UniProtKB/TrEMBL annotation:
GO MF annotations in UniProt: GTP binding; translation initiation factor activity
Protein name (record): Translation initiation factor IF- 2 domain-containing protein
Lineage: Eukaryota, Metazoa, Ecdysozoa, Arthropoda, Hexapoda
InterPro entries for this protein: EFTU-type, TIF_IF2, TIF_IF2_dom3, TIF_IF2_dom3_sf, Transl_B-barrel_sf
Superkingdom as given in the UniProt entry: Eukaryota
Domain called Elongation factor Tu-type: residue spans: 178-213
Keyword list, A-Z: GTP-binding, Nucleotide-binding
Organism: Musca domestica
Length: 226
């Protein structure tokens, strides 16, 4: 507990309890033992999401609070259960409950030098603190948010595909596409430099500029001429 006070529950008590909503919602609660709850305090609690438990017997008050905690735990189990059965083989370094904070961004940023596609944070049904978003933007860490797990997965996979496409474009000019060619003897038009002949592509893809070789004791390489 963070505080004990004698007297009816007032708005000030609710405001103090609400500070726990972003960190530990289960503790954004007020246990009112044998005291009244002012109407304005109850209305504020309902609007903010603060739970107020009342009882004239201390054991009953404790039971109500423990039942509430168990209810929250069950909800979390259901959330993680839906994630666990999702057919996905994504690599991850950590799982945490609560809003995304600067510490999470710092941890994710360590992947920027190794695997930028994994310098990401998947925020499922949680908030992202302003300072954390600003740090992520400055460092180049991607934060994806969604209230539905499938939407979150789709966003991340689209981002990975975007990175792959950029890599393809970057290395397109130097990429070598493997192929296997069969010389057609009836279509040999010139057997010396430049060699001009017909071939059949048995495997792979052949493009202008692809280096080729003819298996022999002295293997020679040539640039293909179309």
């Amino acid at each position: 507990y963070s505080a004990i006070r004698i007297g009816p529950v007032v708005k000030r008590d609710v405001m103090k309890a609400s500070t726990m909503l972003e960190h530990e919602p289960q503790f954004a609660t007020i246990l009112a033992f044998d005291v009244k709850v002012e109407k304005e305090a109850q209305e504020m609690a309902d609007s903010l999401g603060v739970k107020i438990f009342q009882a004239d017997i201390i054991y009953h008050l404790f039971d109500k609070f423990m039942a509430y905690r168990e209810e929250l735990k069950q909800k979390k189990r259901e959330e993680f259960k839906s994630i666990a059965v999702f057919p996905c083989k994504l690599k991850y370094s950590a799982i945490r409950i609560g809003p995304v904070v600067k510490r999470d961004v710092m941890k994710a940023s360590t992947m920027l030098e190794h695997e930028p596609q994994f310098a990401t944070i998947l925020a499922f049904d949680v908030k992202v603190e302003k300072e954390a978003q600003e740090m992520a933007d400055s460092l180049g860490v991607k934060i994806f948010q969604a209230d539905i797990i499938y939407h979150l997965f789709d966003k991340f996979m689209a981002y990975r595909e975007e990175l792959k496409q950029k890599k393809r474009e970057e290395f397109k000019s130097i990429a070598v596409f493997p192929c296997k060619l069969k010389i057609l003897p009836q279509f040999i038009f010139n057997s010396r430099d430049p060699i001009v002949m017909g071939v059949m592509v048995e495997n792979g893809i052949v493009k202008v500029g692809t280096p080729i070789c003819v298996p022999s004791k002295e293997v020679s390489f040539r640039n293909i001429t179309l």
